[in-house]
Amino acid sequence: MATKRMTPGFSDQVMGLVKSLRTDAPDCVASGVVDMSTGMLLSYETVDNHPPEVLDLLAGATLDLFQGRTVVMIEDVFKERRGVQSENHFFQEILVNSENLTHLFVRMTEQQDVVAVVVCRKSVNVGMLFAQVRRVVREYQL
């Protein structure tokens, strides 16, 4: 499992990533960064006020999506069948559509336990959303 480099600029990088996601992702209403190893929402920006308990649950929900028990079991089966020895995870991006919103979760390339979260209006062009978020994530490589 990768460990985060806690350099003096890590917090600034996380806040910069959140701000860039918020401004560059089309139709974005919220962005954030979740550290799944600690279960913490490291930083977020939103256009609306959300109940604190919803924000507190975001990290846990993100962990369930990417590394829930069944997901890990699926990854382990594929790794075994393919002879893969890597600790990296197979699930790198997850798109979730709710009634009014589109949520994109993207695992950081270097820090596999850090996930960028972007929430957009449901009318978003999903192709543009993926393109912009991937570009921003590549720039920050936490």
Polypeptide structure, described:
The chain has 142 residues and is of the alpha+beta class. The chain has a single domain, classed as Dynein light chain 2a, cytoplasmic (Beta-Lactamase), CATH 3.30.450. It has a five-stranded antiparallel beta sheet with strand order 2-1-5-4-3, sandwiched between helices. Helix 1 runs antiparallel to helix 4 and helix 2 runs parallel beside helix 3. The N terminus is likely disordered. It comes from Streptomyces achromogenes. This is Roadblock/LAMTOR2 domain-containing protein.
How are the elements arranged and paired?
Elements lengths: L9 H15 L3 E8 L4 E7 L5 H16 L1 H14 L10 E5 L3 E7 L6 E8 L4 H15 L2
Antiparallel strand pairs: 1-2, 1-5, 3-4, 4-5
Helix pairs in contact: 1-4, 2-3
Number of domains: 1
Strand order of the largest sheet: 2-1-5-4-3
Q: How many individual β-strands?
A: 5
Can you identify the CATH superfamily? Dynein light chain 2a, cytoplasmic
Q: Tell me about the largest β-sheet.
A: 5 strands, antiparallel
Strand content: 15-25%
Overall average pLDDT: 90
What is the helical fraction, as a range of percent?
40-55%
* Number of helical stretches of at least 4 residues: 4
What is the CATH fold-level name? Answer: Beta-Lactamase
* CATH architecture descriptor text: 2-Layer Sandwich
Q: Low-confidence parts lasting 5 or more residues at pLDDT below 50?
A: 1-6
Multimeric organization: single chain
- Alpha carbon gap, first and last residue: 15 Å
Shape: globular
Order of helices and strands: HEEHHEEEH
Q: From the alpha carbons, calculate the radius of gyration and give it in angstroms.
A: 15 Å
Q: Just give the CATH class.
A: Alpha Beta
Structural class: alpha+beta
Protein name: Roadblock/LAMTOR2 domain-containing protein
Organism: Streptomyces achromogenes
